[in-house]
Amino acid sequence: MSEDVHLSQICMDFGSFRAVNNVEVTIKPGEFFSFLGPSGCGKTTILRLISGFMEPTQGAVKIGGKDMKGIRPNARPTALIFQNLALFPLMPVWENITFGLEVRGVSKEIRRAKAEELLQLVDLHDSADKRVSQLSGGQKQRVAIARALAVEPKVMLLDEPLSALDLKLRQHMRAELRAIQKRTGVTFIYITHDQGEALAMSDRVGVMSQGVLQQVATPQEIYNNPVNGFVASFVGENNVIAGKVTSVSGGMAQFETAKGSFQAKLGAAVGMGDEAKLFVRPEFCSLRPANEAKVNSIPVEVTEIAFEGNFVNVFVRDQAGDTHMVQVQNDPSVPPPAPHTACQMVFNPESCMILSEAATSRHGH
Amino acid sequence: MQELIRRYGISLSVMMAAMTAFWLLALVVIPNLVLFKFSFRLYLPVDQLGGPNDVYTLKNYVTFFNSPIHINVFFLTILYSSLVTIICLAITYPLAYILAKVLKPTDTATFFLVLLIPLWVSEILRSFAWFIILSMQGPLNAILTGIGLIDKPIRWISGFQSVVIGLVYAYILFMLFPIYNAIQALDTNQIEASQDLGASTWRTHWRVVIPHAKPGIASGCVMVFMLCAGSVVVPTTLASTNSRWFTEIIQQWMFEGLDWNVGSAYAFLLLALCILFVSLVMRVLNVRLVDIAK
Ligand SMILES: Nc1ncnc2c1ncn2[C@@H]1O[C@H](COP(=O)(O)OP(=O)(O)O)[C@@H](O)[C@H]1O
Ligand SMILES: [Mg+2]
Fold first, then answer.
1. Element (H, E) at A156
2. pLDDT 10s digits, A63-108
3. Which of A108, A221, A325, B213 is the right S-S partner for A282, CB 3.0 to 4.6 Å?
4. In angstroms, what is the span from residue A83 Cα to ligand 2's centroid?
5. A147 — contact with chain B (CB < 8 Å)?
6. Which residue in chain B is spatially nearest to A105 when comparing CA positions?
């Protein structure tokens, strides 16, 4: 039904430019795995390596334990959903969907029945005979998914398939894609630059920067325990303070900065005496009266309040003039302090981390 | 038109429109109308012009249908024009695909330049070059015998062989450009999607590339076919003893017989029958005229 995908130390060079650098990851059968990273970090290249439109310069792509070297895209057990969908405009919807069966010599009656069945699956009724151009963005999306599912791939590859949709539809399609994946049990490899998408849909996420895989973990782990500064700042918001590790005990460390001394969790690649950065998320910060003595506190003044509905972003400035953000739940009985109030920004040692910069190569070269 | 005026101003727009109109009227429509009128009049001695015999008649057209030799030449012209069209298509389609989708754009530009340079040389010189290449003691036979592919020289200039070769060479670019343009406009992702869904190379061409390129293919075919059927220079330069082209008969009527009336009747017959033939083929292949104009 579904297969695992093993990317074994793959590198991809375009001339002297290394677009994918030593990526090593195993995607489990039936998993919804996302590659998350900014535009140009090599996500599409990875999908094209898996689907067979490119061969890696180094390393191997293995699907179900089998090395895919030399196997052409039309013989791989993968189906790719293109960023622009690439539906065939000259064929009606049902022929689009069953194109993969047509090339395998399946009879027209069976294909027609299969098309109807898949249209049900993707919740698109009465569209079999329509032209592709008659469909809306969301409907085209569903046709593309149905077309890929029709060939019963072991692995489904999706290249930012929701990026062309408007926000509302995008959120709806997220849930839908996830449901289709669960129903079919096919391994999904999904790529996106949208952290919300990756976190909401995936079993595991691989965060990439400049061709290097920075961290592979569950969405919770990525968000709560990022391995380095890149992952922390790419996924979610942070207040960042530069400084130096002065003592280490257990997983915790003392961090000396220009704004004072802080206790924090020590990130993976940082050690005693290292220059690094402290990352703390706005929702883990709170505001206290100015005179209360506390660990991990910075004296600040409230500058601006942004009401977001279910939460409120309070912007504060410290004595060095740097701005930080504190996120508090919207609660009419406890309103946030007014602008120009002097107070302290405090955070728990357990909820902040000392992290290094992004890894430029996971294997240290 | 308003767009034109906005962009280039009134005087320049009027000038452009006037020049286009002049081109169409003075150089195309009026001469053809004159010839069209000629074709319904008889070729008479000067003293009978305006006399009782100077009437409109279909006699010139009937001449053709009463001449089995001319009918035969007409069908051979259609047959070999079709053959040239098919050969051009067979050579051009893979070439256009490679140029549009396989080569890097920078290489493509160089390639097109190399292809276009021969067009700067006049058709008659290019045909004559082929006459030299194909002659009994010419370079082609020399090379082929030299590399041992053939034992003795081949008589290339016999039957319609040399005419077909010459016409393919003369008009192949008229096939290449429309097909290249059509394939270039195809989203490469569609080709990849087809492969990804399991289609073989052949199947991808049949179901995705060719349907997309159909208007380009049709327009190239119509162009090459019409140019071949109406060609004069190539069939006369590369003619063998038994290759007669319909245009040569028209020429004979006009310049040897000095009978412009029958000559123009033949010319219009050629035009009309070619249009009929092309529309029939288009009907069979399910191509519409609007597709071609795109
Ligand atoms: N065929 C190619 N030739 C040269 N460079 C390429 C090619 N494909 C991608 N690249 C480069 O590789 C990098 C990664 O591209 P891509 O994988 O498309 O990124 P993403 O999908 O993450 O936005 C980019 O800098 C891009 O310019
Ligand atoms: Mg991309």
1. strand A155-159
2. 999 999 999 999 999 999 999 999 999 999 999 999 999 999 999 9
3. A325
4. 7
5. yes
6. B199
**Sheet-wide strand order for A155-159:** A78-81, A155-159, A187-192, A32-36, A204-209, A212-217
Atom 8 in ligand 1: residue holding the nearest Cα: A45
- Distance (Å, rounded) from C-alpha B224 to C-alpha B58? 30
The region of weakest confidence among A166-170, A241-245, A263-267 is A166-170
pLDDT over threshold 60, residue B276? yes
Taking the Cβ of residue B197 and every Cβ of chain A, the question of whether any pair is shorter than 8 Å is answered with yes
Find the domain containing B250 and state its range.
Answer: 68-293
Q: What is the CATH number of the domain that holds B137?
A: 1.10.3720.10
CA dist., res. A130 & res. A127, Å (int): 5
**Which listed ligand is nearest to A14 at the C-alpha?**
1
Chain A's closest residue to B212, CA to CA, is: A90
What would the mean pLDDT of B171-187 be, rounded to a whole number?
A: 94
Which residue, among A313, A365, A309, has the nearest Cα to A339 in the 3D structure?
A313
Distance from the B107 Cα atom to the nearest Cα atom in chain A, whole angstroms: 17
pLDDT at B290 over 70: no
Residue B49 included in any domain: no
Tokens standing for B171? 């008009």
The whole-chain average pLDDT of chain B stands at 86
Ligand 2 centroid – CA A159 distance (Å): 7
Out of A280-294, B22-36, B204-218, give the one with best mean pLDDT: B204-218
Q: Which of A74, A78, A82 sits opposite B189 (nearest CB)?
A: A82
Contact list, B195 vs chain A (CB under 8 Å): 72-74
* Per-residue pLDDT tens over the stretch A5-61: 999 999 999 999 999 999 999 999 999 999 999 999 999 999 999 999 999 999 999
Which of A87, A90, A100 has its CB closest to that of B198? A100
A103/B200 Cβ within 8 A: yes
Angle between helices B68-97 and B210-229 (to 10 degrees): 140
Tell me how long chain A is: 365
Question: What is the percentage of chain B residues whose pLDDT exceeds 90?
Answer: 32
The answer to whether B82 faces chain A, any CB pair under 8 Å, is: no
Could you tell me if residue B61 is inside a domain?
A: no
Q: Please state the domain extents for chain A.
A: 5-229, 237-355
The pTM assigned to this predicted structure is 0.82
Query: Could you give the strand order of the β-sheet that contains A323-329, starting from the edge strand earlier in sequence?
Result: A285-289, A342-347, A297-307, A311-318, A323-329
- Paired tokens of A144: 């593309």
Give the residues surrounding ligand 1 with Cβ less than 6 Å away: A 14, 19, 37, 39-45
Q: How many domains in chain B?
A: 1
Does some domain include residue B115? yes
Angle between helices B161-184 and B210-229 in degrees, nearest 10: 150
Which residue has a Cα nearest atom 7 of ligand 1?
Answer: A14
CA of A43 to the centre of ligand 2 (A): 6
More confident residue, B260 or B103: B103
Per-residue model confidence (pLDDT) at position A171: 87
Phi first, then psi, for residue A53 (nearest 5°) are -80, -15
Q: pLDDT for A305-345, tens place per residue?
A: 999 889 999 999 999 999 999 999 998 898 888 899 999 99
Task: Please give the distance, rounded to the nearest whole angstrom, from the Cα atom of residue A19 to the centre of ligand 1.
Answer: 6
pLDDT attached to residue B294: 54
Q: Domain A237-355 belongs to what topology?
A: OB fold (Dihydrolipoamide Acetyltransferase, E2P) (2.40.50)
Report the chain B residue with the minimal C-alpha distance to residue A87: B190
3-state secondary structure of A255: strand
Contact residues on chain B for A75, CB-CB shorter than 8 A = 198
Q: Is residue B133 part of a domain?
A: yes
